[in-house]
Amino acid sequence: MSDLKLFEGLKHGDRKAINEIYKNISPKVIYWVKNNSGSEEDGYDIFQESLEIILLKIESLNSSLGGLIMRIAQRKWIDKLRKNKVSIISADNSLSENIQAYEDQAVVEHEKHKLMDHTFSKLSALCQKIIIALKKGSTVDEIVRTLEMSSANTLYRRKSACIERWSILIKEQNSYKELFN
Prior knowledge:
mainly alpha, 2 domains
C-alpha cells in the first residue's frame, strides 16, 4: 500500500491500512526508543501518541508516512526524556538539533506544498491539465492529442505561460518570502 493510501486509511479508520502501519512502522519506533533509554512499552506509547498527532493535526501527506511518524516519535521521546531529566545518549544535543532542524524543514516543506496546491487551484483548467499530464510523465504527443492542441509547439508555449502564471500567483502570496527565501 502506498504512503498516501496508508495515510488516508489511517484518517478514515481503514483496518487494513492501520494494521499495515502497526506492522511496518511501529517496530522501527519501538527499536529507536529502546536504543535511546526507553523500554518497549515507552516505544509503543510514543508510537501511539505520534499517530494521534497525525490524526489530529496533519491535513495532507507530502512525504513518507513512516518518516513523518519517526520524526514525530523522536521529537516526542526526546521531549519526554528532557521533562523527566533522563540522560540521553551522549550525542543527545546534536541528535536533538538534527531532529529539530529536520522537523522544521518538514514543516516548511509542508507549508510550501500547501501554498503551491492553493495557487495551483487558481490556474485555468487547461493549465492544470497540462501540468498534471507533464508531472505524470505523459509524452508531448499524448498531451497534444488528449488536449486537442494543434502542435507540440502550442503545448510548449502554453506550458510556459502556465508555469509563469503559477509563479506569479505563488509570489503574490503573503507567505512566499518567508517560505522561499
